[in-house]
């Protein structure tokens, strides 16, 4: 029995409240949680930087097989799904913002009460010289051939033959790449390599002749 303020230390071998280094198990648990949270935060910061600055390198680091001369814009942690190692991408491929690769069938959730381990997976293969537009979704077991354009917002549910332009929900072939080339030639401008200000001046002159200075664009 103790009167006044008492300090009680519980120590009983392996059940001791304090460890050999003098720290309580509670302190050690808190330290482990803080260390784990710090590691996760640092990992997220590093991944966010790599997704923004080195997106192709990031994709490779999580298991996506990526060829040469590819451009990835606006990718995020969900772009390549939960099984990125089931995705194969060829050479000279552009992936734009909001594109999603889905490598499993999440709908089998409805069977998990009777079949708790069920999953259905499917690989995705993208050929070479392919452009995938903003917000397109590529579903499992899809192969996209070479020289293809996937329109913005398309939901690709089946394989796409080489040389195709597809669009829509679900995606369907709307023309061949050769037909697409013939349709864009009358509208094409071959000024991509020009300096930014020179390009701006030419485009304003072309689309708004005589009004080039009406709506000046502030430099970044």
Concise synopsis of the structure shown:
The protein has helices at 25-53, 55-61, 177-184, 196-207, and strands spanning 65-66, 71-72, 87-89, 93-95, 100-101, 124-126, 130-132, 137-138, 142-144, 148-150, 155-156, 164-167, 172-176. It is an alpha/beta fold and 220 residues long. It folds into 2 domains: 15-53; 54-184, 3 Solenoid (UDP N-Acetylglucosamine Acyltransferase, domain 1), CATH 2.160.10.
Summary tags:
4 helices, UDP N-Acetylglucosamine Acyltransferase, domain 1, globular, 220 residues, 17% strand, 4-stranded parallel sheet, alpha/beta, 6-stranded mixed sheet
Structural notes for this entry:
This protein folds into 2 domains: 15-53; 54-184, UDP N-Acetylglucosamine Acyltransferase, domain 1. It is globular and about 70 Å long. Helix content is 25%, strand content 17%. The protein has helices spanning 25-53, 55-61, 177-184, 196-207, and strands at 65-66, 71-72, 87-89, 93-95, 100-101, 124-126, 130-132, 137-138, 142-144, 148-150, 155-156, 164-167, 172-176. The protein has 220 residues and is an alpha/beta fold. The protein has a 6-stranded mixed sheet. The N and C termini lie far apart (75 Å).
């Amino acid at each position: 029995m103790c009167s006044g303020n008492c300090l009680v230390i519980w120590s009983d071998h392996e059940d001791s409240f304090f460890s050999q280094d003098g720290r309580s198990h509670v302190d050690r648990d808190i330290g482990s949680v803080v260390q784990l949270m710090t590691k996760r935060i640092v990992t997220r910061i590093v991944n966010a930087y790599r997704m923004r600055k080195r997106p192709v390198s990031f994709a490779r680091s999580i298991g996506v097989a990526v060829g040469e001369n590819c451009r990835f814009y606006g990718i995020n942690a969900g772009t390549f799904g939960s099984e990125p190692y089931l995705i194969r991408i060829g050479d000279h491929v552009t992936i734009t913002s909001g594109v999603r690769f889905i490598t499993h069938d999440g709908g089998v959730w409805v069977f998990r009460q009777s079949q708790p381990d069920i999953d259905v997976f499917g690989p995705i293969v993208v050929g070479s010289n392919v452009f995938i537009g903003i917000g397109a979704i590529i579903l499992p077991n899809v192969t996209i051939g070479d020289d293809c354009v996937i329109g913005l917002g398309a939901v690709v549910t089946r394989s796409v033959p080489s040389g195709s332009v597809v669009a829509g929900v679900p995606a369907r072939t709307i023309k061949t790449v050769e037909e697409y080339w013939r349709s864009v030639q009358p509208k094409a401008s071959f000024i991509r390599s020009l300096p930014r200000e020179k390009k701006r001046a030419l485009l304003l002159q072309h689309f708004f002749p005589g009004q080039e200075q009406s709506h000046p664009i502030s430099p970044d």
